[in-house]
Design a protein that fits this description.
Number of domains: 2
CATH class of the largest domain: Mainly Alpha
Number of helices: 14
Number of strands: 7
Distance between the termini: 67 Å
Helix content: 40-55%
Largest sheet: 7 strands, mixed
C-alpha cells in the first residue's frame, strides 16, 4: 500500500474545488433524493448529456413520493434517450421501497443505501458523503484514474485486488469534515484535468504529489486493457399498418430495454434474408402474418457489448390475431400517438421518419 499524505492532498483539492468548478444543477441542492437521481443518471452517461435530463426529471418527479406514485411507463418516457433503462426501473422500484418502508427518506448510511436496487458501492458512497456528510469513499472511473496516477499504481484496475487497493486508498484520503466536497473534487479533477489522454498536469493542484507525473508516466497509467471488437447483429423490424394504425409491442420488463415499446421484429439468423427474418420474428412474437411492402430506414446503434444495424420495413397486416407471445403487451396506435410511449433511441429515428412521411 503506497504511503498516503492525506492532509496536503485534502487541502489542495478542497482549495482548488472551491476556487472554481463546473456549475451543475445537482450541485445546487442538498436534497438526498435529487443527489440520488443525479448519481444514477451519471452512471454510464456524460455530464453534458445528463444535466438537461436531470432538470426535466426533477420537474416531473420532484419528490420520492411523486416518483413512487408514477406509472413506470411515465418514468421510462422521461428517461427516453438516456439509455441503460434498468437505471430508471431501479429508481422507480427504489422510490417505492423508500416511500413504503423508510417514510420517504433515503437511508443515511452507505450500507443502508446499498440495499436499494441499482445502488452499488460507488453510488452509495457518493450519496452518503454528499447528501449526509458521511466519510465514505466513492471510487468511479475518474477517481480511479487520479489515484492510479498520483500513487503510480501500475496494476490492472479491473482486477479485484487492484480495486480493493484503490478503495482502501480512497478511504484513507476522504476526510471526516466535508467528505462530500472532497469526493466531488476528486471526481471533478478526473473529469476536467486528469484526463484519460493528454492530462492537463500543468494546472493540476496535485502535480507536486503525483508520482506518475514525476516519472513521466502519467499517460501510461492507469493500465488500459485491449478492447475486443464488438459483435454486430442485424435486426429486422416492421412498421405494420392496419386501417391507419401501427402495431407496437412492449418489451418484457426484465432484460435489455425492458419496459420500452418497439416495432416488432428481431435478430436475423444465419442464411436468412432480412424479410424472411422479419416475417418469422413477427409470427413468433405476436402470432400474426405480415407482408413486407418495402424498406423504410436503416439505423445503426451501439450498446455496451454489441452493435446493431436496425433494418426497418413498411409492412401490411395479413392475418391472425395479435397475442403477446414474445412480448409483454401490444397495441394498435395512430402515428400521432407514438410520442406517448417510451421507445429505444433507434426506434425514435424510425418514428421521426414516419412523422415526416405523414406530414409530406
Amino acid at each position: 500500500m503506497p504511503q498516503v499524505e492525506s492532509q496536503p492532498v485534502q487541502q489542495r483539492l478542497a482549495a482548488w474545488f472551491k476556487a472554481g468548478h463546473r456549475k451543475l444543477p445537482w450541485r445546487a441542492t442538498r436534497d438526498p433524493y435529487a443527489i440520488w437521481v443525479s448519481e444514477v443518471m451519471l452512471q454510464q452517461t456524460q455530464v453534458a448529456t445528463a444535466a438537461p435530463y436531470f432538470q426535466r426529471f426533477m420537474a416531473r418527479f420532484p419528490t420520492v413520493q411523486a416518483l413512487a406514485d408514477a406509472p413506470v411507463g411515465h418514468v421510462l418516457k422521461a428517461w427516453e434517450g438516456l439509455g441503460y433503462y434498468s437505471r430508471a426501473r431501479d429508481l422507480h422500484r427504489g422510490a417505492g421501497i423508500i416511500a413504503g418502508r423508510y417514510g420517504g427518506e433515503l437511508p443515511r448510511s452507505a450500507q443502508g443505501l446499498r440495499k436499494l436496487p441499482g445502488i452499488g458501492r460507488y453510488t452509495a458512497g457518493a450519496i452518503a458523503s454528499i447528501a449526509f456528510g458521511r466519510p465514505e469513499p466513492a471510487v468511479d472511473g475518474n477517481v480511479r484514474r487520479v489515484l492510479c496516477r498520483v500513487f503510480a499504481i501500475d496494476k490492472d484496475p479491473s482486477r479485484k485486488a487492484t480495486q480493493d487497493q484503490l478503495w482502501a486508498l480512497a478511504g484513507r484520503l476522504v476526510p471526516r469534515k466535508n467528505p462530500g466536497l472532497f469526493n466531488q473534487a476528486v471526481m471533478e479533477l478526473g473529469a476536467t484535468v486528469c484526463l484519460p489522454r493528454r492530462p492537463r498536469c500543468a494546472i493540476c493542484p496535485l502535480e507536486t504529489h503525483c508520482r506518475a507525473r514525476r516519472a513521466k508516466r502519467q499517460e501510461q497509467l492507469p493500465r488500459r486493457k485491449k478492447r475486443r471488437p464488438l459483435p454486430h447483429h442485424d435486426i429486422a423490424v416492421g412498421v405494420i399498418w392496419r386501417r391507419g394504425r401501427i402495431l407496437i409491442d412492449l418489451r418484457p420488463f426484465k432484460g435489455l430495454l425492458g419496459g420500452l415499446w418497439e416495432f416488432p421484429g428481431g435478430k436475423v439468423a444465419p442464411r436468412e434474408t432480412l424479410k424472411e427474418a422479419l416475417v418469422r420474428e413477427v409470427r413468433e412474437e405476436l402470432g400474426i402474418t405480415v407482408e413486407v411492402v418495402g424498406p423504410l430506414a436503416e439505423v445503426r446503434g451501439a450498446f455496451s457489448h454489441f452493435r446493431i444495424t436496425l433494418h426497418a420495413f413498411q409492412c401490411r397486416f395479413v392475418s391472425g390475431r395479435p397475442e403477446a407471445l414474445g412480448c409483454a403487451a401490444w397495441k394498435w396506435v395512430r402515428p400521432d400517438e407514438l410520442d406517448q410511449y417510451p421507445f429505444p433511441k433507434a426506434n425514435q429515428k424510425i418514428i421521426a421518419l414516419i412523422r415526416e412521411q405523414q406530414d409530406s
